[in-house]
Amino acid sequence: MVTNVTSLTRSGLADFVVQRVSAVIMGLYTVCVLGFFFVTPDVDHGVLRGYFGSFGMQTFSTLTILSTAAHAWIGLWTVGTDYIRPHYVGPHATSIRLTFQALALTAIFLFVVWSLRLFWNL
């Protein structure tokens, strides 16, 4: 079995499980937010602040943000290792792949920081 230090868990099975669990969390969050809009007839800024500013939704949002980040990293790492190879892009594939992964990780990190700041500074 080949392992790589840039993988999230260095295990294909664990990555598979993380992807599935994170997808379920993101799905539940979507249902929860859509359900709020369906059962709340008059939505204004104050109602939204109250809903997303509650401790339960802040916690659920944080879990969803972290799940999205893990899901995205595993997906992008897989794409990078599957398609950025010497067979496809030439002899500089390793440096291109590591650059791609560094940029992806930076973007995911910025997304997490921005999102957490958004939800916890309501």
Describe the structure in your own words:
The protein is mainly alpha-helical and 122 residues long. Helix 1 packs across helix 3 (55-83) and helix 3 packs antiparallel against helix 5 (93-120). The longest helix has 29 residues, at 55-83. It has five helices and no strands. The model has no long low-confidence stretch (mean pLDDT 91).
Q: Which radius of gyration do the C-alpha atoms yield?
A: 18 Å
Q: Shape, please? A: elongated
What's the mean pLDDT score?
Answer: 91
Helix content: over 70%
Secondary-structure class: mainly alpha
Quote the distance from N terminus to C terminus.
46 Å
Biggest sheet descriptor = none
- What string, H for helix and E for strand, traces the elements in order? HHHHH
Strand content: under 5%
- Report the uncertain regions: none
Q: What's the total number of strands?
A: 0
Number of helices: 5
How do you describe this structure in short?
The protein is mainly alpha-helical. It has helices at about 10-40, 45-55, 55-85, 85-90, 95-120.
Give a topology summary.
Layout: H1 12-39, H2 45-53, H3 55-83, H4 86-89, H5 93-120
List keywords for this structure.
122 residues
